[in-house]
Design a protein that fits this description.
globular, five-stranded mixed sheet, 469 residues, alpha/beta
């Protein structure tokens, strides 16, 4: 894996003309596609295969593709046009998958909103994105917030998913009869309707879409100021999903089951759990939120093959009293991202589980993933791995991003590849500071100071301050 994984020249940093002198042998396998066509293709190939397992209920590729088509048709019937924004204010539930791909199928742009947002945070991003519709859940933590935002924003309506409709029959009955406090009443008003009522049996509208068209507005975490909407195209997202899938060295005929405890609204899970699973034709075991006890029980119940997470999740699993009784034999790989992975945590987790925990790196602006350590073979502790297929990296001078860093010196990590965003929504002034031009090519500035060794392993050593206004 080590030799074939190398995605760039051993000489770093270099101008673009020479930097990528030895392309990755898998680069030609990456095709920019309409994102919903990935789902359509898998639904045609394996219609009965399970795409989502949710708390004991299975949803096939055919079922969720069908719901996506019906949602697209419903959007068309209600006047959602090409380029309109459809917001997703949801935890991990099966309807998220249908709403996400269905919005894109209708030519709309999906917008992910964190279900942890306050009224003020959600209002600000709804206003900035211009979302016309919000898909949400009948949860006391979500629906009242969504209704407040509906009354004070340009939103035209809410489509409300009933959690009871997503669950297995007995759990659904128990929720409705015994746990009424976990259900928020759906207000009786014309601009609030049930999700299922948005699903139409008509044909979805014909949309003239290209992979270069906008598919998703993904808001940044705001570490460099006010959150900005990264404009991610179908090509960006479909390419990154294929790039991540190509990292997987395991036999393609083996069952592939990803435990989806990461929130799908976040770019990490959006690519590594949702879109990558669809590319692979695998199954996602979705959990509505991360709870260590539930994750450990799900590992025993579902025997997943992969678990993406952030370092705090892996620490929480080890700290839980049920950790020692979890059966990790089915898990082939655990992937850490979102924050630096402490070496002692990695060592302790691997020793306790026998499962390799690899660190990767990415940004909202890169559709999720830029680099990763190999799943098998040599890796280098403390690094964020090597560039993934079709991805180029170089180091910019820390004082002058128009120049390359001096040989052997740390520099600001810059990235090129098919997964790099088009720019920031409604913020053209931020584009200039987000990209650097080297030899006529635009490179995404990450704001992270790094070194790159002779084999392409990248180490983050610092963070630039106030890079992007």
């Amino acid at each position: 894996m080590h030799d074939t994984h190398m995605a760039a020249s051993k000489r770093f940093p270099l101008p673009p003309g020479d930097h990528y002198a030895h392309p990755h042998p898998w680069d030609s396998a990456i095709r920019p596609l309409l994102l919903h066509d990935l789902l359509a293709g898998q639904a045609q190939r394996t219609p009965k295969a399970t795409l989502v397992e949710f708390l004991g209920r299975k949803f096939s590729y055919r079922r969720l593709y069908g719901d996506a088509r019906r949602f697209a048709a419903g959007l068309g019937e209600r006047g959602i046009a090409t380029g309109d924004r459809v917001g997703l204010f949801l935890p991990n539930v099966p309807a998220y998958v249908a709403a996400y791909y269905g919005a894109m199928m209708a030519g709309a742009v999906a917008v992910n909103f964190s279900p942890l947002y306050s009224v003020e945070e959600l209002s600000a991003q709804v206003l900035d994105s211009g979302a016309r519709l919000l898909v949400t859940l009948d949860s006391p933590a979500l629906l009242p917030t969504a209704c407040e935002v509906l009354d004070a924003s340009p939103l035209k309506g809410l489509a409300v998913v009933r959690l009871a409709d997503e669950l297995p029959r007995l759990k659904s009955l128990g929720l409705r009869l015994l746990k009424r406090g976990q259900i928020a009443p759906i207000p009786s008003r014309p601009d609030v309707g049930l999700w299922r009522d948005w699903l139409s049996d008509a044909e979805p509208p014909e949309r003239d879409l290209a992979p270069s068209d906008l598919a998703l507005l993904q808001y940044t975490g705001g570490t460099t100021g006010t959150p900005k909407g990264a404009m991610l195209t179908h090509a960006n997202l479909s390419s990154n999903a294929q790039q991540v899938d190509l990292l997987d060295p395991f036999e393609r005929s083996e069952r592939d089951v990803i435990l989806g405890a990461l929130p799908l609204f976040h770019v990490f899970a959006n690519t590594c759990v949702l879109n990558r699973t669809v590319v692979r034709g695998g199954c996602m075991v979705l959990l509505p939120r991360f709870e260590a006890k539930q994750v450990l029980a799900t590992i025993n119940r579902m025997k997943p093959t992969g678990l993406p997470g952030v370092p705090t999740m892996f620490q929480a699993l080890m700290d839980h009293q049920d950790f020692a009784s979890a059966d990790w034999k089915s898990v082939r790989i655990c992937i850490s991202g979102g924050a630096p992975l402490p070496g002692p945590l990695c060592d302790k987790f691997e020793k306790a589980t026998g499962v390799r925990l690899v660190e990767g790196y990415g940004l909202t602006e890169s559709s999720g993933v830029v680099s990763a350590n190999p799943y098998v073979g040599e890796r280098r502790a403390g690094t964020i791995g090597q560039p993934i297929p079709a991805t180029q990296v170089l180091l910019l001078d820390k004082e002058d991003p128009k120049q390359l860093a001096p040989d052997g010196a740390p520099g600001e990590l810059a990235v090129r590849g098919p997964q790099i965003m088009r720019g920031y929504w409604n913020k053209p002034e931020s584009h200039a500071s987000a990209f650097a031009e080297i030899n006529g090519e635009a490179w995404l500035r990450t704001g992270d100071v790094a070194t790159i060794d002779a084999d392409g392993f990248i180490t983050i050593v610092d963070r630039l301050k106030d890079m992007i206004a």
